[in-house]
Automatic annotation (TrEMBL):
Enzyme class: transferase
Keywords linked to the UniProt accession: Glycosyltransferase, Membrane, Nucleotide-binding, Signal-anchor, Transferase, Transmembrane, Transmembrane helix
Predominant localisation class: membrane
Pathway it works in: Protein modification; protein glycosylation
GO cellular component terms listed in the entry, alphabetical order: membrane
Protein name, per record: N-acetylgalactosaminide beta-1,3-galactosyltransferase
Similarity annotation: Belongs to the glycosyltransferase 31 family. Beta3-Gal-T subfamily.
Record-annotated Fringe-like glycosyltransferase domain positions: 106-213
Gene3D superfamilies per the UniProt record, alphabetical: 3.90.550.50
Length: 236
């Protein structure tokens, strides 16, 4: 049975297209393949640049830093003379819990430096990050992501934990990032002039987005009563 004319024409066109593709100059074939490769590569690059969680995972997976060596480099203060009389007294009188937000990929960089410098002057430090490592200074926040869009959840979780477990052990609660440097002696001196039993907080008060504003930036500190308002997901 003879095929319909239209079907025969279609088959001839398909065969002709295959023949032309197979016998066209090699540079045209390579050009098409190169264009396809460029498109796929561009999509991958855009995905990596936009997906912060994926980027952090890659950095954490392949980053190799000697944490002990880094900490030793910044921890030697034997050659510096400092009169710590007032600082030592305030350390006992003004107790500060430092809640520092970080990510796993920063354990060998920012966290190492922070832990070897100003964080050791906190009465207690907790690093909020997603980790399975068992450490008394680590607060697991794996139920939240590690990108900037999850910071509110991490802050609330940190203060909820502090309120439930440590609220009566410290006078003030400092929220900071792992790229923040705090002169704890100066902070304690400032806080010593404020009543930690009266609700209040110190820091930069943003007046954007929300009518009442909000506390944000590299660091801010609140006292016991203010810290308790974060329990149950509330904001300071």
């Amino acid at each position: 049975m003879a095929l319909p004319m239209k079907l025969r024409v279609m088959m001839m066109r398909q065969n002709m297209s295959k023949f032309l593709w197979k016998h066209q100059p090699y540079w045209k074939q390579y050009l098409v393949k190169l264009a396809i490769f460029a498109v796929i590569t561009s999509v991958i690059v855009i995905f990596v640049c936009l997906d912060e969680d994926f980027t952090l995972w890659i950095r954490y997976k392949f980053q190799k830093v000697d944490l002990k060596k880094l900490a030793e480099e910044y921890s030697d203060e034997s050659t510096i003379y400092v009169d710590k009389t007032v600082a030592d007294r305030l350390f006992k009188q003004v107790k500060v819990l430092c809640l520092i937000l970080t990510v796993p990929s920063h354990l060998g960089t920012q966290v190492g430096v922070v832990n070897a410098t100003w964080a050791k002057r906190c009465n207690k430090v907790l690093y909020a990050l997603c980790t399975n490592k068992k450490d008394p200074d680590f607060l697991n926040t794996c139920k939240f992501g590690e990108s900037k869009s999850h910071l509110i959840g991490k802050v609330r979780h940190s203060f909820t934990f502090a309120y439930a477990n440590l609220i009566h052990d410290y006078d003030w609660f400092l929220k900071a990032d792992d790229d923040t440097y705090v002169v704890m002696e100066n902070l304690r001196y400032l806080l010593s002039h404020h009543d930690s039993n009266s609700p209040g907080y110190l820091g930069y008060h943003f007046q954007t987005y929300l009518e009442q504003g909000y506390m944000s930036g590299g660091a801010w500190v609140c006292d016991q009563p203010s810290g308790s308002t974060t329990d149950g997901g509330g904001g300071v």
